[in-house]
Specification:
This protein is an alpha+beta fold and about 190 residues long. The chain has three helices and nine strands. It is globular, with a radius of gyration of 25 Å.
């Protein structure tokens, strides 16, 4: 009995080792991806770290290091110039996993005197911009205006501070994050 089992195991091992290397490689690929080993698209934003909600974003000239701006090619591919045509540099700050089809990303658009941070929703499939909202702002010309945003699972709250007058003016804006990635002002 044991002899027959041993013979069957040896024969199976011999037959398996005789198959061509390319067949083995194909088989290994199919085991990894049973749908046909289709190559995956590279993640253009793989180096941008993920954060968990809630996230408070108070990006300003004092707490921003300004390293590693996005390449012109990536700015163009992600259509970021619509955030601020005058921005000299764009920086991908962090991402927030939202749905299987949509991710959120914080992008800072910077000029010499202004810094605007937007939360953008984009399609994971083709990196199409779905919607955007400014969640943080700072300017150093007069140092009188700023914004701070808070992102939770379903909502964005932005507080705009205006110190131009004798009394500061604080305006609070709220947006609901739709499942589609759209931001609806409340």
């Amino acid at each position: 009995m044991y002899g027959k089992l041993l013979l069957a195991a040896l024969l199976s091992g011999f037959l398996f080792s005789c198959t061509s290397g390319s067949d083995s490689a194909k088989r290994a690929e199919l085991l990894k991806d049973p749908e046909g080993a289709q190559p995956q698209k590279p993640d253009l934003l793989a180096t941008v770290p993920f954060k968990r909600v809630p996230v408070i974003d108070s990006t300003n000239f004092d707490n921003f290091n300004g390293k590693d701006p996005l390449s012109e090619k990536l700015v163009s591919r992600l259509n970021l110039k619509i955030l601020d045509e005058n921005a000299q540099n764009f920086y991908a700050r962090y991402r927030i996993s939202f749905t299987t089809a949509v991710d959120l990303m914080a992008v800072t658009a910077a000029t010499e005197n202004e810094m605007k941070t937007f939360l953008i929703a984009y399609s994971k499939e083709d990196y199409q911009l779905i919607d955007r909202v400014m969640i943080a702002y700072d300017e150093i010309a007069e140092s009188a205006l700023s914004s701070v945003g808070k992102v939770t699972k379903n909502e964005i709250t932005v507080k705009n501070y205006n110190y131009m007058g004798e009394e500061p003016v604080i305006e609070t804006l709220k947006y609901r994050i739709e499942h589609s990635g759209k931001f609806s002002k409340q």
